[in-house]
Design goal:
Number of helices: 7
Strand content: 15-25%
Radius of gyration: 36 Å
Helix content: 10-25%
Distance between the termini: 100 Å
Number of domains: 3
Structural class: alpha+beta
Largest sheet: 4 strands, antiparallel
Order of helices and strands: HHHEEEEHHEEEHEEHEEEEE
Strand order of the largest sheet: 5-6-7-14
Length: 341
């Protein structure tokens, strides 16, 4: 009898607790704070988040419930795994503030620059000339220690201002008869003297003929010299080993981008004897640019650059010197492609 009584009391106690719990739950507010029509309750859908991550498409938050038109099936909605895969991840070589143009806002992907960052890199930086020495103001004219007697401060080799350039051994990449400049993005014909012959006996070209030779290169993959011999320029960098068809004569600043004023003969970042020298048939002569002189009396003249020491000068577009004339002024053409548009 006592056991039955104990069981009854226990059951009554448990049932009482359950009723009390139900009462507590029912005492709560079952009215939601608001539906999708309430701005405080509106949310983006997983699909909207995925589309913004993958395509940049933005849309308004959900403002009403939408009933499904069919049961769930394969591919009916993106998964959380797909959203995670589309989310940005950290890259060790990602852009940082000092590598992004001043005032430009980007999303940083490096460990120490995650999130929105504003660039601090100076606008349109000028590269260094390559010169690291100072020079005496009196003879013997030669390198000296800046700030010492007859070696004034303030020289280029003293300041060494400008954007740090890529080390010469890493700057150029040879690809199937072409050379990519990894600093500027320009792609140069590896053969800097294609019309040849491959020595300095070639008399050179006038400006109009130089442009015509580049057009010939685009059409045939080679150039005809003044000896009427056609020569393959060695470019096989296009699809199926063919030549590119968008070569052009460089402008004067593009030619100057190759110049290193710490060197001469040629004034390029590497010397001809360097095992990493990427070009062939570079002669220390004058190379035409596509840039015309701005002064009206000189509209018949164009700028050219010396590969001997980096000198820039202008001359008549019909000018050309043969082997028996002024030997120092032979004008060649060095095609380029790519570059900033």
């Amino acid at each position: 009898m006592r056991n039955k009584l104990t069981v009854g009391i226990t059951l009554g106690f448990v049932v009482g607790l359950l009723f009390s719990a139900v009462t507590i739950v029912l005492a709560g507010n079952l009215v939601p704070s608001g539906g999708p029509a309430n701005p405080d309750s509106q949310m983006y859908t997983l699909q909207q988040i995925y589309e913004q991550l993958t395509t940049g498409t933005t849309s308004e938050k959900m403002e009403a419930f939408t009933e499904p038109v069919a049961g769930p099936g394969t591919g009916t909605m993106v998964t959380l795994d797909e959203i995670m895969a589309a989310a940005p991840v950290i890259h060790t070589n990602a852009a940082t503030q000092t590598g992004v143009l001043s005032g430009t806002v980007v999303w940083g992907l490096s460990g120490d620059a995650w999130g929105v960052i504003t660039g601090t890199r100076p606008y349109l930086p000028v590269p260094k000339t390559g010169q690291i020495s100072c020079f005496r103001t009196v003879g013997p004219w030669g390198p000296c220690e800046c700030g010492t007697e007859d070696c004034p401060v303030g020289q280029d080799g003293d300041w060494q201002r400008g954007l740090e350039t890529i080390p010469p051994a890493l700057r150029f990449t040879v690809i199937s008869g072409t050379v990519t400049d990894n600093m500027t993005g320009l792609i140069w014909l590896q053969n800097a003297h294609c019309p040849g012959p491959n020595d300095e006996s070639y008399p050179g070209l006038n400006w109009f003929d130089a442009i015509a030779r580049v057009a010939e290169l685009n059409a045939t993959g080679g150039m005809t010299g003044t000896d009427n011999e056609w020569r393959d320029c060695g470019d096989t960098s296009n699809v199926n080993g063919t030549h590119q068809t968008d070569w052009r004569m460089p402008n004067v600043r593009e030619l100057l981008s190759l110049t290193d004023y710490s060197r001469y003969d040629p004034s390029l970042p590497l010397g001809r004897d360097d095992p990493d020298f990427p070009f062939i048939n570079v002669w220390s002569r004058w190379y035409w640019s596509s840039t015309t002189h701005a002064y009206s009396e000189y509209w018949n003249e164009a700028w050219f650059v010396s590969m001997y020491g980096g000198r820039v000068q202008h001359i008549g577009k019909n000018a050309v010197w043969g082997p028996d004339e002024i030997d120092a002024f032979k004008l060649y053409v060095w095609p380029v492609r790519g570059g900033q548009e």
